[in-house]
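User
New here, explain this?
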Amino acid sequence: MGRRLALLVSLIAGWCLAAAPAQAACTGLGSCSCSVSAPDISFGNYNPLDALPVDAVSSVDVICTATVVGLFLSYEVEIGPGGSGNQMARRMAQGGSSLSYNLYRDLLRTKVWGDGTGGSESLAAGQLFSILIPWSVSYPVFGRLPAGQG
């Protein structure tokens, strides 16, 4: 029988993007344990006069172990909307200033990583487990600050 692991990674933005506590949960027959981490993504210095956007890369890391041989575990990775409340128009703020940014699943930055609603995409995946052998995977997160923000 399959299991479902729901992963929700909420990312909050400041001048650099800081990951909020990530969550992982295993439910169903047998037992398993999972953890999720989302290291900070830093866009570095931003110059509003630059003609090109500022791009950055980070990751969402998933590590699981199971106590059942041959268990297939499916899961989904979602990234929250951050402080803006809108995953399609994320904003980071510090003091009275703010910048638009977004997080993407692909290098070309065409697939907004969110919860799968409103034009965003989540990431669904799965893994066949062997008994007590940890499994881990790292998914890249591509960030972009559009150019010309004053």
In short: The CA atoms of residues 9 and 21 lie 7 Å apart. The first strand starts at residue 3 and ends at 9. Residues 3-145 form one domain.
